[in-house]
Amino acid sequence: MIGGISPVWAADMANGAKVFTVQCAGCHVNGGNIVRRGKNLYKKALLRNQMDSIAAISALVAQGKYAMPAFHDRLTPQQIEDVAAYVLAQAENNWK
Known about the structure:
Layout: H1 13-28, H2 43-48, H3 54-63, H4 77-92
């Protein structure tokens, strides 16, 4: 649980992992960030950047920001929620 908020357990973690592998891992391999080092997906960075909720991560994935592209036209709302929940769960587990 990050910031006192648990991931949505209704999310499909297997689908989130698949979406992450196909759409996100190119820049965020193992939770890192090859474009902007400080904008990684580790628990500490998510908390610092106020990205410690499914809603915040989902909005970023959908709308994009700075070097991160928007995915609203490539992913369904369910895929976006699934990948957001997956990211939170992985951050909680230190990407192991």
